[in-house]
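Weekly puzzle thread! Below is a chain. First person to post its structure in token form gets bragging rights.
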Amino acid sequence: MCMKFKAPKLLCLLALFFSANFSFSQIEVKGKVVDFTSFLPIENASIYIQNTTIGTISNADGKFQINVPQDHLQDTLVVSSIGFKTFKVPLNEYDPSFEIFLEEDIASLDEVVVMAENRPTEANDIVLRALERLERNLPDSSYIQKGFLRHKERNKREFKWLIESAITVYDSAYNTNASDVLKINVDEVRKSYDLRDVDSVFNYVSYINQTANGKRLKPDEVRRSDIKKSEIIKAIRWNDERINGLNNLFKSQLNLLRNAHRTKALFGSQILDNHQFQLDTILVDNERKIYKIKIKEGEDFVGLNTEGVFNKGYHARGWLYIYYDNYAVKQVEYELIAASKTQKIRSKRLFDTQVNHKLVITYRDYKGKMYPSYIYYETPKLVNVGYKSQKRLNEKEKEAFNKTQRYYYTVQEILFTDIILDKSQIKNALNNTWDADMFAAKPYNAQFWDNYNILLESEEDEQLIRDLTRRAQLFKN
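Winning reply:
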């Protein structure tokens, strides 16, 4: 075809590339983002079509994939990452056979500090200024976001559970109470494999102790043979929802900026009691200067008010990235580390780690407001790890208590793929039924997923997912 019409080499390549991936007026665009100096892949780089909400992020291997409607083929593909120069190219000139190399781009901290006039120069003051500006920088009217959710549960060796879903999130202005107004719906499910042990006595004991009145149980007082399978499943579902449900992620203290005005908010008016901040440097993000600020522990412990769970006694650490020009927060990287004596003992015994919460929230500037674009949340999870028998164990029991099998954690990733501001569309959507239960079984709609942007798995995760898929099929058979 290219020889017949004597098209330029690049256009031929694009034609072949696009036609091979043509589906329902969507173009599949792939690539890999690499550090120009180290030749290492760049993870979590932002890849999007300029002046639209179409985009994704690169995975651990630096690779990405997005579906772009054909009417955007004349638009510009943008690749950016904090601390690097931005790469831009017209989409119809993009050559996917070449890797995208990003060059380091760092501003001078000394120059910025010297030139500052009536600006805070200490990190604590910069963070306080950013929090004061949240009402100005976060959305001030209702909006809907479409997104892709990947929920993984695993031990140190393999995946035990995987859910991939399309979700819709409705929210109103920053100054409203998220627990009252925010809505979440699970629209479609792409994958759902559950190979967790359903005979978790520890889950059952926790469930009974939290939900039933009467004598408190201990794991060694309960025999699996005395419990109905239906009760075990109820207990696991209860544990799923109280820690890992979508409502908890969006409406709790973990939504650090959105819920900063709430009582006892982690980034609320008392933020400096349990956090301190240190200015590290000035970087560049998409041609804008951005503060890189280290999060350090304060005098008080950090706590999360999770019902029925001892979820306090932490110190915080991580990073904040705040734009120099308007103090908008671009990204939060936040960890809670066991710090009190009680939490250290609990975390070691139940989780074999002192890091109880890892959170990354990245925002994107769209029409002058900062909307969430990517969320990563990781936490250890109570499954069957709370009880270790002191009796002599047989080989099967020893394997059950092996650290690589015994300690579980969950990872939730959300990539937001669209922002809807049209009031009529929002009004129509609010008339629908909203269901945030990502654990409920739903039918698979292949046509829906043909055009939906998803997070590209890393090569390691892809292999683990393939293994889980095979084992799930054997389990079904």
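Puzzle host: Confirmed. Bonus trivia for everyone else. The longest helix spans residues 459-476.
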